[in-house]
Amino acid sequence: xxxxxxxxxxxxxxxxxxxxxxxxxxxxxxxxxxxxxxxxxxxxxxxxxxxxxxxxxxxxxxxxxxxxxxxxxxxxxxxxxxxxxxxxxxxxxxxxxxxxxxxxxxxxxxxxxxxxxxxxxxxxxxxxxxxxxxxxxxxxxxxxxxxxxxxxxxxxxxxxxxxxxxxxxxxxxxxxxxxxxxxxxxxxxxxxxxxxxxxxxxxxxxxxxxxxxxxxxxxxxxxxxxxxxxxxxxxxxxxxxxxxxxxxxxxxxxxxxxxxxxxxxxxxxxxxxxxx
Length: 276
Prior knowledge:
seven-stranded mixed β-sheet
């Protein structure tokens, strides 16, 4: 193949966009503020049959190509992948760190929405991880070749073999976008992923604004507050923004955080998570 032909093919492949069928989605009629964010559901209409799915029924949602994107990004205007990606890029630029040298572990990778954002920045390696096999299959179907590796594993209970494989990637950045809290990724799983990042590596994630309130005593909220007060994480950027809208049109606010890892999470905090 000539260089011109090869170059044309590569450029053409970059322009290809996945084309999905439009799904018939119906949001329920509810009183304002009636449903919590982790209780929200919708109806998927197929062949005149209505199937009720919770927003967090990711395994079922991923089985329908384009449904996740249509629901969260088109209908509910989710802005988090771009927001967190832009902040991470800015922080690294301000610190004179080359994005092209970064080796990122994308925890809770799902079908690759944030991985796709990372790819546009030109990072050196992107390793995806999720507890859901359906997520991995959806990613391979929708965004083949996006990740250098994609592991389906439980970060609360990493076996020795998986631990060695992850360490071999020499991860120096952890990302976790639209996946923390609500039982999706437990606090212990996030902590174990944090500890895989090399010293002076970078951490980028987002959380619902209520997780930083003093009244929230959940395990994940406690972990984040402990990190903010400890020497393990040096905060470089913390910003409140609109994550998406709710099913009744209210803005849902999150915090985007990017910081530098100074050390592993202290043993006393890890021990507390072990007994949670």
